[in-house]
Structure to design on (345 residues):
């Protein structure tokens, strides 16, 4: 038998941020596809949609009218998953086999632009910088509430991801407890720091920059890689090049750099198969529980579902639901594809 190769042989890869494994099957990419084809999305063409609940001056589902905003606009989610005034409480039964806890929080929606037809890829860097500033302000404002211990900023892009509206926007869900994925990363950062005396992602970033094969793009303050343990076909990780625990620690130059890297990543995505390229993205950063959390390293995950074309997507089914996630194209191949994709519109 030949020597084990990441390019030829099935293997599993470890995700040090979550402790999970992903099965990689590089020999399987030639598999025929006779499954469902998704209809390709079409780009929005109108800059103002009278029926859109996010466009300036329009009325939202709860009857409130949006202001005639000209840059960004933040509003309380009219159908929030969490409420600020839920009474504290716990419910247990059967020797703690059935456990429930009351959860409080605040959910908001952030419109990136008054223009209905834009996306991050189509916005200019100055407009994206304004969005970064709103993210920082929301993280600070919500994080400062005494009962809020975590602020999750995330964007669903495209109907394929369950996004309800093409108007460029993201959501913020802040909560009294630290949610699952963030708790896993929290543990990983703490354990890595304790065991190796270094930040997990500082070390990982240095390694990827030395190896080069999974790098996608970089500027002075941010690096984009397809992580070694990526699950989604064109998943990327945006890493702050300096150890910053959260968005509020970015100086002005770093905020500009974040705007720049977001533009470059989303433009590359749009060149792959379909405009706008669907994904869910979000930031992971220091919990807002009042602890310094110096172990945290700010980063953003992009999870796009498209696999080989605008109409062939990845589903998490079968083995993936029952056992472990699996991928056919290797992260190295995905990184090479993204690298050779143009960064200009
Ligand atoms: P997504 O498209 O990412 O699902 O986000 C849209 C959010 O906007 C969603 O959480 C909220 C929904 O509750 N929303 C309002 O707050 N007001 C409205 O008038 C419609 C939708
Ligand atoms: Zn709109």
């Amino acid at each position: 038998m030949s020597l084990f190769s990441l390019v030829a042989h099935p293997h599993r890869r470890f995700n040090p941020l979550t402790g999970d494994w992903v099965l990689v099957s590089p020999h399987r990419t030639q598999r025929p596809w006779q499954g469902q084809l998704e209809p390709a999305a079409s780009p929005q063409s109108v800059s103002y949609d009278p029926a859109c609940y996010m466009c300036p001056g329009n009325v939202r589902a709860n009857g409130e009218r949006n202001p005639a905003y000209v840059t960004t606009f933040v509003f309380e989610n009219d159908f929030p998953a969490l409420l600020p005034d839920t009474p504290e409480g716990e419910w247990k039964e059967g020797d703690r086999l059935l456990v429930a806890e009351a959860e409080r929080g605040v959910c908001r929606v952030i419109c990136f632009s008054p223009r209905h037809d834009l996306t991050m890829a189509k916005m200019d860097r100055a407009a994206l910088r304004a969005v970064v500033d709103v993210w920082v302000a929301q993280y600070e404002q919500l994080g400062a509430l005494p009962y809020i211990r975590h602020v999750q900023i995330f964007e669903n892009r495209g109907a394929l991801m369950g996004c309800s509206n093409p108007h460029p926007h993201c959501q913020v869900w802040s909560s009294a407890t630290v949610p699952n994925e963030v708790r896993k990363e929290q543990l990983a950062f703490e354990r890595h720091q304790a065991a190796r005396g270094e930040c997990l992602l500082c070390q990982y970033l240095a390694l990827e920059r030395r190896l080069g094969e999974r790098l996608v793009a970089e500027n002075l303050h941010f690096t984009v890689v397809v992580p070694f343990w990526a699950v989604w076909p064109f998943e990327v990780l945006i890493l702050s090049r300096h150890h910053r625990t959260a968005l509020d620690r970015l100086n002005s130059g770093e905020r500009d750099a974040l705007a720049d890297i977001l533009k470059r990543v989303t433009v590359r995505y749009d060149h792959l198969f379909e405009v706008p390229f669907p994904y869910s993205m979000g930031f992971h950063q220091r919990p807002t529980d009042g602890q310094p959390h110096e172990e945290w390293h700010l980063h953003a995950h992009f999870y796009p579902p498209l696999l080989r074309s605008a109409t062939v997507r990845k589903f998490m089914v079968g083995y993936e639901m029952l056992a472990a996630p699996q991928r056919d194209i290797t992260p190295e191949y995905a990184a090479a594809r993204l690298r050779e994709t143009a960064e200009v519109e």
